[in-house]
Task: structure prediction
Amino acid sequence: MSKPTLLLIDDEERILRSLRMLFFSGYKVHMTTDPQEAIRILRDERVHVIVSDQRMPLMQGSELLGLAREASPATMRILLTGYSDLDASIASVNEGEVFRYLMKPWDAEEVKKVVAEAAAIAEASFAVQLHVDVPVDAASSKPRVLIMDNDESTAKTVHETLSDRCEIIWASDAQHAMEELAKQDVSVVVSDLTLGETNVGYILKTIKQLNPQTQCIVVTSFNDTSRLIELINQAQITRFLPKPVSKNLLVRNLESMLERFHAVRNQPALQNRQAVAPISDPQEKIQAGNFLGMLGRLRARMGA
Amino acid sequence: MQQATQTGKEIFSLINTIDAISPDCSLEDVAAFFSHPKYSKLLSLPVVEEGHPVGMISRYRFMDIYLKRYARELHGKRPIRKFINGKPLLVELDQPLAVAARHVLANMQFPLTEDFIVTQGGRYLGVGFVMDLLHAMEQQMRANTMELEQANSQLKSSQLALVQSEKMASLGQMVAGIAHEINTPLGYVQNNVAIGQELFQQVQSMIAGYEALVDDLLDEQATEGQIAAQMQQIAEKRADANVQEMLGEMQGLMEDSLYGIAQISELVLNLKNFSRMDAAATEAVNLNECIESALNIGRNVLKDRVEVIKELGDIPKISCAPSQLNQVFLNLFTNAAQAMEGPGKLHIKTWSSESAVHISVADNGKGIPEEILTRIFDPFFTTKPVGEGTGLGLAITHQIIQKHGGEIHVDSRVGEGTCFHIRLPIVTSILMHQPAASEAAT
Ligand SMILES: Nc1ncnc2c1ncn2[C@@H]1O[C@H](COP(=O)(O)OP(=O)(O)O)[C@@H](O)[C@H]1O
Ligand SMILES: [Mg+2]
Result:
């Protein structure tokens, strides 16, 4: 295999020079301070991974990554930023659909590892066509939508729009959610970040480990940037919608996540595009371990 | 409910329970009442019919009638009804003291000839003395003043807390921005050092290879084969293009790193200067320096899309609290940047007149609609979403400028931009003359 191609964008050339040194031996490295130039490169060449800064004078990184998604869907997108504000991180999920949200200053080894992982995933997905309309297989079982939100209006919206096509489960607590997950995998999760008393971050992270096809939409009024960044990296949530969410917005995103689910199910090579990073929080790691354990026992019992 | 009983109490304490007379009472009897020691203090007698006050007869008016010649004989047996004042001063029990006082003061006669009647639901309760009422009023006002003073001092301390919280808010925004400013150079410096370290190890092993070769060459027992193998090893390392290229680049990376470190130090220094909040410590300061300092700190808010045009004139130092003026300028710059939707211009000008230093800060942002122009200096007035605006920036700015004896004015046009103009008086102090004096001495 020839060297994978890496595209670096930052308004500070010193960052580019420094990163290039990290990668030049293993990659074909392009670098630029100009977002337009970056898009041109993406169109002209097969780029495995794009690493972009967030705050740049001409364009925000999340916006650039959104454009990159159109110009070259198979390219894996990584944000590398020294500035973590909420809007930027929300945009990086919803527009940029980033694979990882990394912080400056970075750990050289970690960045190398993440880029290598992303490059391998990109290589695999060049082979399959992305974003093709896959006819929904009528014979296959109905997609399941799991709602983890105490807010009734969320459940109501989902019911009104999807009840004819999907099996809808409204879990009011973590226990209930677990039982449903034990029965069968779910296609789309619509979740707040707290459910009753429980912080559901670890559940979202576990779901994605359990079944990479599941698409997660977070709807919440909670706004903590660092937690969101964790959810991007460790749960690969695909949408983050701040509450109150308009019905239209929620419906639109539900539809597109259902499509995404079908696409990924039909082309398993795409699964890895949403591979998650290991859980970093020690307490969540324990919670996730317990959760998986209980789930396994439940499944075994149900199977028996 | 609570309030009513409270105010009722105020009037209640003024009541003197006095048996009222009936309108049918004869003048003779009234004369007897007035001369009775029990009523000696009374200016007037209340006249009540079926529980309701119908009037008042004052001692003054009564004497006027009754002491006339033959009056006793002529009118002695007639009822008082004809002679009374049918519009007495009435005060309801649950009226607040202040309302009652206002009513009485507005309607009483001079000289004071009548007191007032206290009623409850229109029914007669007793008589109150005007003097007592005024006295009570005075006391209440004194108490109110104390309350006001207390409230005022409380307000002052909460204002202080507000200033603090705005400081925290702008600090929060600043810290987020500065984190970016620092993390960027920190990012490449740290990475360059990591790369340098790896390269260093490679170079070290290369040197070790050369040393081993030299040792082999000097060692008479070393075989041709050994030497050849050693040379081969070295050749491989030299051929490693990575090391070659890395060595070539390393020089540049080192320079970048030094640059980055200098940038971080500068930022830290700026921060230190900026936040030297020896609160109100005044110094002789050239405001151009404050502006530069605020621009430095605000760089991350501005740099992305704001073109800064400086026209800093030759202005004298003035005595002021530099940290506070830094804050003023940062507030104005931040507001200007926030008023721009896309790229924009910030025009900063300073000049001096005979007695004052002038600063104008103009932007070509979205401007301020006329209907809110008068409110922008109000505490908590903001048009920005939560988290972005506290509405305290200009309130504090105004306060600081006022404390320095200056003025701030705004001029704005929607769609064109906004200009703030600050005028600060030049207060010549001994401190500022010192350098000149020492110059003369040398
Ligand atoms: N340069 C400016 N251009 C347009 N509007 C401004 C400008 N400066 C202040 N304003 C208006 O005045 C309001 C109050 O400003 P300020 O007291 O600094 O509070 P904040 O910036 O937190 O809202 C702002 O919300 C904005 O509407
Ligand atoms: Mg402001």
About this structure: Residues B 331, 335-336, 339, 363, 365-368, 376, 381-384, 389-395, 418 surround adenosine-5'-diphosphate (ligand 1) (CB under 6 Å).
